[in-house]
Amino acid sequence: MTGMFDFNNNSHRRYNPLSDSWVLVSPHRTQRPWQGQQEKTSAGGLPEYDATCYLCPGNTRATGPVNPKYESTFVFLNDYAAVKVDQPPYEQSDADDDMKSRLLKAQGVRGTCFVICFSPKHNVTLPLMSVPEIEYVLETWTSLYFKMKTETPFRYLQIFENKGAVMGCSNPHPHCQAWCTESLPFEPAQELKSLRSYTAKHGTCLLCDYVAIELQEASRIVLQNDSFIALVPFWAVWPFETMIVAQSHTASLLDFTPKQKTDLADLMQKLTIRYDNLFETSFPYSMGLHQAPINPIADEADLSHFHMHFYPPLLRGATVRKFLVGFEMLGEPQRDLTAEQAADRIRAVDEVHYLSK
Questions:
Q1: Among 47, 136, 187, 239, which residue carries the largest CB count within 10 Å?
Q2: Rounded Cα distance, 77 and 177, in Å
Q3: Which UniProt keywords apply (predicted)?
Q4: For the chain, what percent of residues have pLDDT higher than 90?
Q5: What is the 3-state secondary structure (H, E, C) of the chain?
Q6: Is 179 helix (H, G, I), strand (E, B) or coil?
Q7: What whole-number percentage of the chain has pLDDT above 70?
Q8: pLDDT tens per residue, range 285-314
Q9: Strand partners, 37
Q10: Does residue 6 have a pLDDT over 60?
């Protein structure tokens, strides 16, 4: 075969140094016809207050507690927490002299879970909130991080948002969750392992170096300001996956300056507006923060570099969803749209929310 290799037309693999994994990229498949499942678009016209919503101010939740008539953010213990604070300890022998000990391993996990309502308004989402309102959400996350750090022996606080019914969100009221566990979850643990390995080999921070490359090439950057960049990672799996990464080596929310908080709120608003505008729908995603463990050990605090992942499932429009099946479950993740093409698509949309036009 003659000619030059073309990343926009030829199949190839891309390496993710954060997770030490690979993704297969098949850009020539974007032309295939789609006859698969069509998702329903998000229902519009939600009221500002819904008397049947478990999260609206003043309403009674499913398990009986009554929400206060809150006016900004509202944090409460998850009524259906995934982990428990009080439970019997479970200890398993570390001996590896028999097959059962080697292969059937388990650990008890204690912790606590929170729900964080972004706003008392039932009909808003992050792209429809003001920058000061999003800043207050960041302040709430920071306060919870500090509380867990100073008052519990737990290791990690995973803050995440599932937006949209497609992502399993059962309540459209704007909210996220925070799960605090005594174990370090696999994904942030894998990232710390990769960050440690990179620093040991090169003497620098993996994400600091990656930010420098992205700023130089610019082809995958969607938005940027003085403190953060929003980009489609070179190794993205989901069609319009993005990361927000701190430009300076900042470990956690606790280390942010006031300007960094304002800049992050501004970038979160602008990025999620672009998401909504891409297909003129309330764009679904799973979003999460990766930062230093609340109770770090050894070099974990020094290695940590604050960033946020956005994993949206939409592929070709508001009703066509990307599924990870077949080769992607049994081989490795695969995508059709290149990271550069996805960044071009997101950059091309307006920063004024489509509902405001």
A1: 239
A2: 10
A3: Transferase
A4: 75
A5: CCCCCCCCCCCEEEEECCCCEEEEECHHHHHCCCCCCECCCCCCCCCCCCCCCCCCCCCECCCCCECCCCCCCEEEECCCCCCECCCCCCCCCCCCCCHHHHHCCCCCCEEEEEEEECCCCCCCCHHHCCHHHHHHHHHHHHHHHHHHHHHCCCCEEEEEEEECHHHCCCCCCCEEEEEEECCCCHHHHHHHHHHHHHHHHHCCCHHHHHHHHHHHHCCCEEEECCCEEEECCCCCCCCCCEEEEECCCCCCHHHCCHHHHHHHHHHHHHHHHHHHHHHCCCCCEEEEEECCCCCCCCCHHHHCCCEEEEECCEEEECCEECCCCCHHHHCCCEECCCHHHHHHHHHHCCCCCHHHC
A6: strand
A7: 94
A8: 999 999 999 999 999 999 999 999 999 998
A9: none
A10: yes
**Of 179, 111, 136, which is closest to residue 268 (Cα–Cα)?**
136
- Could you list the active site residues? 175
> What is the rounded CA–CA span in Å between residue 251 and residue 299?
12
CA distance 281 to 218: 27
Write down the pLDDT at residue 212: 98
CATH classification (class only), 74-181: alpha beta
Opening angle at CA 209, ends 203 and 213, nearest 5: 150
**CA–CA distance, 332 with 353 (Å, rounded to integer):** 36
Residue 338 and residue 27 in contact, taking contact as beta carbons nearer than 8 Å: yes
Q: What CATH number was assigned to the domain covering residues 186-351?
A: 3.30.428.10
Residues in the chain: 357
Q: Which two tokens stand for residue 334?
A: 């695969």
Q: Which residues pair with 231 in a beta bridge?
A: 221, 243
Q: How confident is the model at residue 316 (pLDDT cuts 50, 70, 90)?
A: confident
Has this prediction a pTM greater than 0.90? yes
Domain segments of the chain as ranges? 74-181, 186-351
* Nearest partner of 174 among 270, 89, 53, judged by Cα: 53
Residue pLDDT, tens place only, 12-52? 999 999 999 999 998 877 655 444 455 555 545 799 999 99
